[in-house]
Amino acid sequence: MKIDFEGAARRHFNDALFLYQRGRKPNADHLCGFAAECALKHIMVSVDRGLISKDELKSEYKIHIEKLWKEFFAFADGRSMSALLSDLPRDNPFSDWTVVSRYFGEQHFIEKAIDRHIEATNKVMVMLERFLIDGVAL
How many other C-beta atoms can be found within 10 angstroms of the C-beta atom of residue 96? Predict the structure, then answer.
C-alpha cells in the first residue's frame, strides 16, 4: 500500500476528537500522537522526497512523535521554513507521550497531558493546512 501521511493524520485526528468529546480521553491521546506524527512526516516528505524511497520512509524517520518533534524542528530550520513553525512550541509537548501507552490502564493517563497533546495536535493540523495551501514558501 502507498503511504498517505496526510490522510492518516486527518483520520487519526478526527477519531481523536470524536473520542475526546465522548470522554474516551486515553485513546484520544494515543491517536493525537499518531496524528501529529503523520502530519509532520507529510510535510517532511513533501519538502524532501529523498526521505522516502519505494513508498517507505527512511529508517532515521521511523520514529514516533516524542522524538520526531525535535527532528522536525531541525529539518524545518535547515530549510528556512521558520514561518511554518511560528505557532508551534519549540518545547516538545509530546515529550511524555509514548506508543507503549496502548498497554497502559486508564489510571496512568493524566488529563492535563492529554489536553496538552490535543492542543498541540490541533496546532500541527492547522500548520498542515497552511502548508497544503501555501506550500514551503511561507
Answer: 12
